[in-house]
Amino acid sequence: MSAAQKPLRLGILLSGRGSNFLAIAENIRSGRLSGAEIAVVIANVAEAPGLAAASEMGFETELFVSKGRPRAEHDADVIAALKKRNVDLVILAGYMRLLSPRFIAAFPNRILNIHPSLLPAFPGLDAQTQAFEYGVKLAGCTVHFVDEHLDHGAIILQRAIEVAESDDAHSLAERILVEEHIAYSEAIARVASGEFELRGRRYIKK
Ligand code: GRF
Questions:
Q1: Domain ranges in the chain?
Q2: Does the C-beta of 18 come closer than 6 Å to ligand 1?
Q3: What does CATH list as the number for 1-108?
Q4: pTM of this prediction?
Q5: Which terminus of the chain, N or C, has less C-beta within 10 A?
């Protein structure tokens, strides 16, 4: 980012622990991730520890409980909260909810997700356990743009680790999480730089 450029405004969406959010926040604070700032943290679950952490840290937060609400109605509230804060990039950080087509259309190629597997292998829930039980030798995480399909959009980057003989599903998930915390900030920096183009599904650095 050049000095004249304004930082990209991030809207973080989460449902739980929030360790990816915390890693991004720490990387921005320490200057490892420049060119981005957190505009708002939004949760769909009242008890999400990530939401409490965000508000303790002084970030703007919003809670829109999604349980029992029609997806389009809930998403309209979230979109409005993001637009109100001029969010440039939506960061799904353990957001356990599919986005409506309207949400995706409101932020074209401006929504990122992180998934704890080397996609397209093991989309969906408990990806680390799926990978472990399948017996893969390489595991990892993927940061990708979000489209209408689950864990599917164009891949920005992946980080891989070797599965150790001593691993169990839990230790593997922990080691993948370490990679996630590096990968997400790196992907945000790449998108913030604007120095890329999408050729079909392929993310190409300019
Ligand atoms: C991470 O494993 C992420 O890849 C997946 O959900 C989990 C969220 O963890 N999408 P946290 O809430 O960021 O700690």
A1: 1-108, 114-206
A2: yes
A3: 3.40.50.170
A4: 0.96
A5: C
- Ligand 1 centroid to Cα of residue 80, in Å, is 24
Give the mean pLDDT of 78-102.
97
**Closest atom, ligand 1, to C-alpha of 19:** 14
Q: How far does residue 3's CA lie from ligand 1's centre (Å)?
A: 32
State how beta strands 155-162 and 138-145 pair. Answer: antiparallel
Token couple for 17: 């622990």
Q: List the one residue out of 185, 134, 133 whose CA is nearest residue 159.
A: 185
Asked if residue 166 has pLDDT above 50, the reply is yes
pLDDT tops 80 at residue 144: yes
Q: What is the pLDDT of residues 4-33, one digit of tens each?
A: 578 999 999 999 999 999 999 999 999 999
For the chain, what is the mean pLDDT? 96
Give the distance (Å) from ligand 1 centre to CA of residue 4. 33
- Which pLDDT does position 3 carry in this prediction? 47
Give the ligand 1 atom nearest the CA of 115. Answer: 4
Domain 114-206, CATH class in plain words: alpha beta
d(CA 11, CA 180): 18
